[in-house]
Structures are given as C-alpha cells and as structure tokens.
Amino acid sequence: MAELCARIADDRAAGFRPVCVVGTAGTTNSGAVDDLAAIARIAHEEGAWFHADACFGGFFRLTERGRAALRGIEDADSISVDAHKSLFLPHGSSALLVKDRVRLGDAFEIPGAAYLPGFVDEPELADFASYGPELSREIRGLTAWLPLKMHGVAAFETTLDEKIDLAHYLADRLATLDGLEVVRQHPIHLPVVIFKLSGARDSVLNAELCELVCSRGNVYLTTTELPEHGLVVRACILHHQTDRTVVDRMVDDVEWSVRVLRDKEN
Ligand SMILES: *Cc1c(COP(=O)(O)O)cnc(C)c1O
After folding, report:
1. Structural domain of 245
2. Residues 130-188: pLDDT tens digits?
3. Which ligand 1 atom is nearest residue 56's CA?
4. 30: Cβ–Cβ under 8 A, 6 or more apart, which residues?
5. Which of 117, 151, 185 is the last residue of a domain?
6. What is the total count of domains within the chain?
7. Best mutation site among 33, 36, 56 for ligand 1 pocket (most ligand atoms within 8 Å of CB)
8. Rounded to the nearest whole angstrom, what is the distance from the C-alpha of residue 90 to the centroid of ligand 1?
9. In sequence order, what E strands does 123-254 have?
10. Closest Cα to atom 7, ligand 1: which residue?
11. For FRET with 32, which of 81, 195, 228, 253 sits at 20 to 30 Å CA-CA?
C-alpha cells in the first residue's frame, strides 16, 4: 500500500492524474489476494476508479473462506470474472460487473439507427448493446445460466470448497516428503500450491522435477517464478473433477520424481 501511495504521489508530481487502480482478487501465479479493502480506500480517496481483477478467483466468493479472502471487493467500481475458471464453465464465459451501469451506458451507448425499434431497457432485461462495444452478440450468458439452473448455486459452492480443502491437503502431504519444501503462503490465498526441492537447489532441477511429474501422465503442473524463491513448481487445483484420488496420485508421482532426481545426482 505504501508503494501504491508513492506511485500515485509520483504521478501527481509529474503532472498526471491517476484514473484507475487495479487490485488482484487472486493471482493466477500463486493465488495471492491483494488487500482489496485498503486499495479501495486509497483509490477512492484519490478520486480514482477501482477495478478488481477477479478473473481467476472471483467465484470463490460463493464460499465462506473465499468471502474472507476477497473482503473489500464489494467496494470495487468494476470487477472482471472468468466463469471459465472458478465456475468450471466453457472457455469464453467472462463478465465485467460494474457498480453503476449508467457509466457503461455513457461510454458505449449509441443512438439507435432509424430502422431499429427502441429496445426495452430495464434491470431484468438489459439491452447489452448499450453496455459494451458489441451490437450483434452471442448469447454468452447461456453458458453460465444453464449450469446454474441445472445444478444450483450450492453445487458450485460445495465444489469450490472442495478445491480449497484439496489445496490444504496437498500442501500438507507434500510437506511430509523428504527433500521437498512447500512454499508457505499467506493463510488467505486461493487453491494454488507452490513447492520446490529443498536446500539450495537450482532452477534447472526444479524444472526437471516438474517435467518428471508431468511425464507420468496423471497431472499437469507448471513452473513459475516467485521473487524470493526463483523457479518453483505450481499446482493449480481448479478442475471440477480433481479429487483426493488425483491428489494422492500426484503426491506419489512427486515422491517418485524426487527419488529419480536424487538417484541421478548420486
Ligand atoms: C485468466 C486471467 C486473466 C485473463 O483472462 P482470460 O479470460 O484468459 O482472457 C486476467 N487476470 C487474471 C488474474 C487471470 O487469472
């Protein structure tokens, strides 16, 4: 927050007017969540728009732990969410939510052509052409509406809760493995588990560890870089079918991979 305030002060000193601050409600990289309440306060004190990037983690707000993690998001002027991530829906199911819809109308509404009848525009029946750049558009909302109608919101809440539980379970199990270190994150973060070989091992070995686990064909992991840890291995638990069986198999694969690496070194 100190850094944010300093950047805003620098901008003002240079003659710029800060117009927007973006906070992240769950980074794709590590699942870390910004202090959204504090960012909202600073942005609004400065007369700037506060956008919350909740593409990755927004729907965790359906769960109690997610609501605690995303505290302050309700103060955002706009929020972007990807239902194709934390709502498990088909790709391309994204939405931009705004607090004050009039602002979108001001930006995007164009007078209708003479041949078009006036559209109905009421809260339950929005004319989306007035709220975004598209006129003719797909019925994208169906990809979210139908699964929600079919399964009910509670099914999504239960499944998201399960992912948070699985991330804790995975972190705890990996922590018991010899030669491996789980990068402990702030208690409030979304289900991404970061780990690496313990001791002063280099990036190449961690990349090799990731490749070995993937080569078993059971799970797909990626590597990423964290400022204080360098190259680390990243497990992102965000598929509706990922369960304890998958996680247990992954732990076996990690154990096997660490052993392979150790044997190679000796
Ligand atoms: C995925 C993601 C985006 C980009 O969203 P797309 O739907 O892939 O275009 C932006 N921000 C965060 C935090 C994300 O996780």
Report:
1. 153-265
2. 888 888 888 888 989 999 999 999 999 999 999 999 999 999 999 999 999 999 877 66
3. 15
4. 185, 189, 192, 194, 224, 226, 234
5. 151
6. 2
7. 56
8. 14
9. 180-182, 192-197, 222-226, 230-236
10. 82
11. 253
